[in-house]
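Section 5: illustrative case.
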């Protein structure tokens, strides 16, 4: 193992699940490790700043996207989540961007502790706990899962159609509501939708080449 990879090991372990941070459902260490070996440079700065910067967060988002798909054309994890909804159960989908941000804040905090374990009075260089993805409830520390609403105010955008011929006719329930079809619509799964938001090629590649999944229990 070269020094560059070794340098990123604390970040990798905290990000993909340890005693103080959660793992991504359906993605065990073996699956994450395979992605890490070719994408470790995205984690090089994680945990080295006092506070998690937006630039570092962007790299982490790229890394997490690559845990779920080999398609390089998807840069938004929320879009990826919508597309994969047609082929994965809800508990196997990637997190929303807001939820991932909170997870990254906690992983950043833990990584910083490991990287500075030889520093006396470590609390002087750590970010505030309540700005690192946790909150105090009745004197106990709890993880902040998300700061955004779980559902949109207008739930009609969650409508899915059952079209089998590409949503070209007037019976498409999404067209009736004047909204684009989403990943969980049957038409998107068949890559034939004429009411789509993303390009066919992106969707087809994602559905045909998802990252190899593994059991939650797999380990080194």
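Designed sequence:
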């Amino acid at each position: 193992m070269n020094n560059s990879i070794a340098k990123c090991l604390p970040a990798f372990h905290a990000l993909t699940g340890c005693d103080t941070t959660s793992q991504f459902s359906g993605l065990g260490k073996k699956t994450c490790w395979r992605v890490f070996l070719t994408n470790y440079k995205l984690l090089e700065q994680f945990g080295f700043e006092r506070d998690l910067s937006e630039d570092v967060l962007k790299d982490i988002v790229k890394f997490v996207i690559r845990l779920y798909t080999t398609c390089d054309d998807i840069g938004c994890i929320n879009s990826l989540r919508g597309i994969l909804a047609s082929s994965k159960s809800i508990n196997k989908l990637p997190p929303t961007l807001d939820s991932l941000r909170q997870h990254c804040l906690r992983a950043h905090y833990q990584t910083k502790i490991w990287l500075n374990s030889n520093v006396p009075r470590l609390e002087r260089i750590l970010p505030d706990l309540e700005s690192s993805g946790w909150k105090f409830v009745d004197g106990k520390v709890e993880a902040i899962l998300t700061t955004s609403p779980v559902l949109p105010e207008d739930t009609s955008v969650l409508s899915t159609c059952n079209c089998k011929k590409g949503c070209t006719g007037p019976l498409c329930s999404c067209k009736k509501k004047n909204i684009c079809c989403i990943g969980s619509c049957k038409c998107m799964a068949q890559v034939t939708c004429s009411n789509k938001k993303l390009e066919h090629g992106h969707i087809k590649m994602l559905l045909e080449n998802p990252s190899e999944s593994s059991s939650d229990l797999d380990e080194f």
